[in-house]
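Researcher: I'm comparing several assemblies side by side, and this is the next one on my list. It has 905 residues spread over two chains. Same procedure as the others: predict the full complex and return the structure.
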Amino acid sequence: MNPAAARLLARASTLGADAAEVFLSSGTEFSVKVFNREIDSLVSAQSRGVGLRTLRDQRVGFAYTFDLGPQSLDALVDEALRNGRYNHADEANALPPVAVADPIPGLYAPDLDRVDPQRKIQFALDLERLATSTDPRVKRVSDVVYSDGSGHVELANSLGLDTTFDRTVAYASVDAIAEQDSEMQSGYAFTYGRDLDALQLDATAQEAAQRAAGLLGATRVPTAKVPVVLDPYAGAMILGLLTNSFSGDAVLKRRSLLAGKVGEAVASTMVSIVDDARLADGLSSRPFDGEGVPSRRNELVTAGVLQGFLHNTYTARRSGAASTGSAVRSYKSVPEVGVSNLILQPGSQSRAELLAPVRDGLYVAQLHGLHTVNTVSGEFSLGVTGHWIRGGELAQPVRELTIAGQLIDLLRKVVGLANDPRFTFAGGFCGSPTVLIEELSVAGA
Amino acid sequence: MLDPALVDAILERARRSGADLVELFVERKRNQSIAVEESRVERVNSGHDGGAGIRIIHGTVVAYVYTEDLSEAGLLKTADLAAAVGRRGGGVFSVAALTGTPKPARPVEISPDSVPTERKIELLREADEAARSTSGVIRQVSLGYGETVQDVLIATSEGIRHQDQRTRVRLMVQVVAGRDSEIQTAMEAPGAEVGFEFFQRRSPVESARIAADRAVKLLDARPMPAGTMPVVMGNEFGGVLFHEACGHGLEADFVSKGSTVYAGQLGQKVASEILTAVDDGSEPTRWGSGAVDDEGTPTRRTVLIDHGVLQSYLHDRRSAGKQGLPVTGNGRRQSYQHLPIPRMSNTFIAAGDATVEQILAATSRGLYARKLGGGQVDPVTGDFVFAVTEGYLIEGGRVASMVRGATLVGNGPKTLHKVDMIGQDLELAPGTCGKEGQSVPVSVGQPTLRISELTVGGTG
């Protein structure tokens, strides 16, 4: 066991804790941003910290620190126990039984730390160069970033748990800017993997440039009720708005749109949603959760029917369910309930087949105002930049539109899913294919 | 915070690479948070954050290295790493000189550290009781209390040495009201860069009642009909629209990249001539205030737009140097883990001369957006969307029925030209602003004002 963890657990026990848990994390980070063919900034870092959770008389105490010196560690135990005195006693507070988690092959790419930083810098420079050389109207980018990180987690508790895992992630993104007359449009693309070699350079550059250039000449259109197609990034953003509703904690606090609906149809029969913490290339994958519970693939919605909620040990005990291995945390927080890799399962049609029957409709390329959505009532009204669909194909770009509705109602109106899933960060690592919605009210000029 | 001789040694070591400028940022932060849910203490947490970042500038290239190891050995090792990763870049080194004198320290009357946790819990319990006793339809009340005491040291190879202590306290109240299957929420979150005495001025009980009243009233609100109409925006948090849709476009890093419509517009008319906008990080006790920014530049009042004419952007030292303009004290960072970038501090539209009654009376039909929620904006185009969390229809120059689900949709720069009445009732409100993955405390603000025409989204 890590000596800092051993010291904390021993002192917690001496001072009267019934149980205690130590979460230590450390990692390295490298990130480079380029602009105008030069390095704009470069960050290299090593970070670490420790969080201590104590249980005494069914009360949880928590404190964290960056300082791993012996005096600081001893003071941390005192502080956690002191904080715990004020918290309400709850018999659901407990550590999970110790279980062995299977490792996830490929989660850690040992080569990442050995890659010459110059190659990473070159990747970012190439991404900018390629994004600005595919279309004459795309001459610059607003942001090009390459980032990677290598993280190490150690988790130990007074029940005898003593486990670790390592994970690497690498990703790059580009925001291309297309200009024509006095109009500017932006286009985003994102690529990710476990190390530099997994990233896609050409496709990412092209996608950003095409997305930006394709929106030039955007006009406003009149208000209408029409079919709406969400592109995969937009679909993932909408999926991200549902993360809270899948949380067992939100159910207990009566803030979930899905509370009390297990076994009921909450979406169209085409919709299946899973949260899979063991997804091979998922950026949120991990062999065990923030309390040491082995990770698994959780089916949340299957053919439209709600299967259950995500739980950590506490919410599971309060709800009469089992932990789903969904405790998420950093060393600065107690384990909360959260999604890992949340996936709206793709369908079998190509995007063109999905669009084909849409005579007149809206294709959503960008959503604006996502954090204005009330995830408790589910009501949303979002700004849209995208394209009008005419005769099954993308026609002129459109802007300053809003789509409005309610999230559950939206899920019920899904009438088509393509086979082109994409992932991005959206309140979790969320993946979605192109989604066809039967009809929404679109407010325009 | 650190022995001056050690500070000198770190800067010296890091500069061996021959950098044009080396800057050390050291931070120690203590925080406590308390959450009350279901009328009981859900969580008392506390933590200690600390670390140091070294920034190296060679020509136009910036390298940044940080660590949580504040021991002498750890800091010197980090300085060596900084010297190693610092790269000699092309371009001409240009960082604006630091000017100005920091205002004297803001007095903190009652350090939140010194207040017993029991007292903080008592305030939250009183607020919980106040919210619950407002109405029988209150289903949930969540309360949060947060305090931070942040100490920073900024030292550069030019010989600059600045220290600052920023104490912040904040209350959060969220109320959920429900009737049958209908649920509505409302939130209040006052805070200031000040000690615990803040709660004598802003009683948690009062904040709780305001949130509860609004949640209850929203149950009876009707869905907002969509359309284009005049919009009267409420004061205080209404300023978030200016912050998001225009303020970010005035941040000089976007200007340098030409990715804002305000690039090249200094001296041009960018807003209605009755509109003046200001950023002021030196105003005592405001949520986004400090004696110096996170590059050590003393904070100050900067007029951004004067009677419709663009006067200044918001700069950090690099952007000011690059554009040959003076610093404005807006180089801010979330923590030692981040590079400073141009950020707003307390940004607001200045007071005008109309009364709220006059503004409403002059509007025969429209939306009174009394309070806004969050919003989002495309910094390139300035296109925005904002949720209205407390809105009313205006009919015949009077406030009529309450509406829900309204959103404001438009383009920030165009909207500024459409501001045709500005009230006297300037107020500021705290918020957390995110940019490039960094969150910093800011204030937004404005008086009540009218936009002659705006697209309003809704479900009615």
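Model: For your comparison table: Chain A has a mean pLDDT of 95.
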